[in-house]
Amino acid sequence: MQRTIGRFLRALRASEIPISPAEAIDAHTTVDMVGYADRTLLKDALCAALAKSADEVERFDDCFEMFFTREEFRGDGDSSDDKDIIDPALIADNPLARLLEEGDESALAQAIEQAANQAGVAKIRFATQRNLFTRRMLDQMGLRDMERLIARLTRAQTAGGTAAAQRLEAAREYLFDQARQYTTRQFELYARFAGEQLRAEFLVKTSLSAVEQRDFQRMHRIVRRMAHKLATRYNRRRKQSRRGVLDVRRTLRRNMAHDGILFETVWKQTKIERPKIVVICDVSQSVAAAARFLLLFLYSLNEVIASLRAFAFSSNLIEISDILESRPVEQAIPEILEKIGFRPTDYGQALADFDEQFLDSVDRRTTIIMLGDGRTNNTDPRIDLMRQLHDRAKSFIWLNPEPEPFWGTGDSEMLRYRTFCHVAKTCSTVQDLENIIDDVLKTYFRA
After folding, report:
1. Of 131, 160, 190, which closes a domain?
2. pTM of this structure
3. Using CB atoms within 10 A of its CB, is residue 324 exposed (0-12), middle (13-18) or buried (19+)?
4. What order do you get walking across the sheet with 317-319 strand by strand?
5. Angle of the 2-14 helix axis to the 159-190 helix axis, nearest 10
6. At what angle do helices 130-141 and 143-156 cross, to 10 degrees?
7. From CA 207, how far away is CA 427, in angstroms rounded?
8. pLDDT computed for residue 388 by the predictor
């Protein structure tokens, strides 16, 4: 039964329930303890060991019922009536025909399970593969030999042979229906989320400005997953570094009273700074989509970011931290865009507003992240204020959704702004965003 649990764990992973090696061991231990006799007890015990959230509990329940339910061969096939129609001698050399004629549901279910394993049906990934795997599975059961038997009986043109061929043909159709049902269930188990995963892989590399409204919820899940991964990585690094390194001199000195026996240890203290980030987002028409996902990404990193203040502007600049903290990001972003977005861009005015009202929020521990295309609509870019922010902050990072060859063209002042940026990069996809934020966190959490 270890193989059964192994396949069940694969089905759970395919349902986007992460199962670590340690949890897989727990699952096997749980099954050894509770056994298979009580279905409800087995389900509850495995759920307690493997599901870690309400959403995962729901998906676990669906997956468990689908995996351990066998609906195939529960109904009566045509081959179950009038068993004396087929002369046993006609099908003596065909195990599948004999099995269908006998109508042994348990034996048929076992045969289809074994054939599915041999055909690799669990590897199905796309709906278009269902017919292919169904045929492979039936060939493993011996369907081709049975089809040749049907053809031979039909050609014989005897009364008994024709009746037997018709009966076997009806049994063949019944077998196909049950096999298709089985393959469909395997598709639901192992490939239900494959299409979603392919779509996610595509969206990660899609320009943020090209993401359609119907994909926003999917993108939110992708961004949160990326942020959680980074938060987990840097939280672990901080926990590992907090204790520091053994201070040998102070340890020996403190233990001189104990004749040098190390009863007490003294550790070197390592000061770890959590990131302090100021985000300034251009929410004009051309950049609003990228701003949405940057803010969502950063606010999902609240476990490792000590202080995050967010500002938005088209022309005038306002602080949006309170809006983002008091509402879900999905609700806050449209409110912000309605309040200040989609207006003519004026970078000089935005920088002036920040300098006048919020300059005290920037110190030598602050990283400023500016998201915008640097297009000023031919207004004063206020390069002097950029220089001041550059000198005052730990680092100034500019994320531009436009390709670098477009910088400095038309009304773009990006080449002048870049002079006072510690980092200036194109950030047109979620993958770019993850890489850049990862680099920012590395400056605070050095190994």
Report:
1. 190
2. 0.59
3. buried
4. 317-319, 307-313, 276-282, 366-371, 395-400, 423-426
5. 60
6. 70
7. 9
8. 94
The pLDDT tens digits for 118-173 are 888 888 888 888 899 999 999 999 999 999 988 988 887 787 788 888 888 988 99
Residue 141: how many CA atoms within 13 Å on its side-chain side?
A: 29
Q: Extract the tokens encoding 353.
A: 């507003």
Rg (CA), the chain: 33
Q: Would you state the structure tokens that stand for residue 308, as one six-digit string?
A: 């995050």
Count of CB atoms within 10 A of residue 239's CB? Answer: 10
Residue 275 vs residue 171, higher pLDDT: 171
Tokens of 154: 């039909």
Spatial contact of 11 and 190, defined as CB atoms under 8 Å apart: yes
Question: How far lies 225's CA from each of 66, 109, 129, 419, 420, in Å?
Answer: 27, 40, 29, 34, 33
Which among 438, 97, 447 is positioned nearest to 301, based on CA atoms? 438
Final residue of a domain: which of 46, 68, 90? 68
Handedness of CA 339, 218, 429, 298 (dihedral sign): positive
d(CA 300, CA 294): 10
Q: Does residue 73 lie within any of the structural domains?
A: no
360 and 392 together in one domain = yes
* Residue count of the chain: 447
Look up the domain containing 142 and give its range: 78-190
